[in-house]
Amino acid sequence: MKYMFRRARAAVNRCCLWGLCIAMCTGLFLPAVLAAEEGTALRESSRPTLRVVATFFPVHLFARNIAHSRPYVQIDLLIPPSSGCPHNYSPSPQDLQKLAQADVVIINGLGLEAFLQEYLATLPPDTIIVDASHGTSPLPQQAHDDHSHAGCDHGTAKAYNPHIFAGPRQAASMVYAIAAGLAQADPRAASAYQQAAEEYAARLLSLDRRLAEIGSAAQQKGVVLQHDALAYLAANAGLEVLDVIQTDAEASPSPARMLELTRRIREHRPALILTEPQFPDKLAQTLAQETQVPLLSLDPLASGPADAPLSYYEAVMAVNCNLLERSLVQP
Ligand SMILES: [Zn+2]
User: Fold this and answer.
1) At the fourth CATH level, which superfamily is domain 47-207?
2) Ligand 1 center to residue 85 CA distance, Å?
3) In terms of CB atoms within 10 Å, which of 42, 59, 203, 266 comes out highest?
4) Ligand 1: distance of its center to the CA of 67 in Å?
5) Are strands 73-77 and 272-275 parallel, antiparallel or unpaired?
């Protein structure tokens, strides 16, 4: 009896399967699927636009990676993508208008957008401000006795290095913070944001593991940084930052400080002086000539092209890894 029932059920299943095949073959099924998909697309496109403004290039790229499957999420970049760190950016009237119209404003945090502080307080009370540094463990800001902070616009959080986007592990943490902020603004898509964040963060973390592998295989681990944007990348690779040439984006080091740097580099013989394409490297070149320590330019991803593909961070960080490996690890 049991057997017959099973046979009968199998026959029904077979019938259903055949019915499905016939429906598909006769074109009954496909239009139904397309109609359902069209319905979903229509529902998605008829949703009111969620206006998101991200302050600068890496934060914008992370937000795009999280929300790329949501056509109703419009993510604008506040400052030009080629500008690099917005340490001393002055917002235009158009920038302020963009901010005032946003549902969500995403910032790097840790005082990097000091220029925004006074404007954030004037935004409509229902604007969601997402601080992407939330949940990250920041590194302390590099400082020197003769280094003046006059003109340094890292704002109230000067004690921490704000360039968290340049470390893939910290970038993954930023991605989760941004996904949580978008979910707060758009709760119906919360699981989609979370899933996109998990997938993206997994790719970033695998780059971070590669950095750590390169650092652990390096014969020499000492480096000097031109600017402290590369401090997270260096720390994640297990490299030892002997010194930072220019901790202040605006003020150049004094002649006395340059002499001290030369002396320290000669004494400690770091493996590399790391420069950034976003920063003039004249001082680093002078130090390299004086000390015969090689220069290497790595991109901390503070800037990028306006039409950067979603995979831009992974591609550039992979190039950074290759360059570091070639310079630090003997074959
Ligand atoms: Zn910077």
Assistant:
1) Nitrogenase molybdenum iron protein domain (3.40.50.1980)
2) 5
3) 59
4) 26
5) unpaired
